[in-house]
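Priority: medium. Attachment 1 of 2:
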C-alpha cells in the first residue's frame, strides 16, 4: 500500500473503508487481508466488488497490497490503483470458492497480472 504518510491501521478499519478508483468510482469494500505467516507482510487484499460496478454481480478479487493507497483528505476512502477495465477482466472467485493450492504461485500470478513487483521480505 502506498501512502504519503505512514501510520498503523487495523485490518478491521481497512474493511470498513470505501474503495474507489482514481476516477472516484466506488468499487466495493476490502473483505479480508491475507498475511504471510512467515514475514507478517500483507500479501494481498480480497476486494469484494459491488454488484453495480462491473455489471456482473458480486465478485471477489485478490489484489496485491501495493495496488492500494489511502485518500489524503478522506480517511475512510482507499484508492485502488488499477483501471476499471483491468478489474473487469481480472480472474475472480466467489465466496464459496477461495483460491487453493500453492499460495506462492497464486500470489506471484496476481502480482504479475496487476503489474506489481512482489516484495520478498526476509523474516
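Attachment 2 of 2:
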Amino acid at each position: 500500500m502506498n501512502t504519503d504518510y505512514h501510520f498503523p491501521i487495523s485490518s478491521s478499519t481497512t474493511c470498513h473503508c470505501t474503495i474507489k478508483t482514481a476516477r472516484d468510482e466506488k468499487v466495493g469494500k476490502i473483505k479480508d487481508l491475507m498475511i504471510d505467516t512467515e514475514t507478517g507482510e500483507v500479501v494481498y487484499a480480497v476486494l469484494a466488488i459491488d454488484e453495480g460496478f462491473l455489471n456482473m454481480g458480486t465478485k471477489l478479487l485478490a489484489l496485491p497490497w501495493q495496488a492500494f493507497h489511502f485518500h489524503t483528505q478522506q480517511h475512510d476512502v482507499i484508492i485502488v490503483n488499477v483501471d476499471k477495465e483491468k478489474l473487469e477482466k481480472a480472474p475472480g472467485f466467489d465466496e464459496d470458492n477461495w483460491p487453493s493450492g500453492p499460495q506462492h504461485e497464486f500470489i506471484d500470478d496476481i502480482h504479475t497480472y496487476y503489474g506489481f513487483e512482489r516484495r520478498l521480505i526476509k523474516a
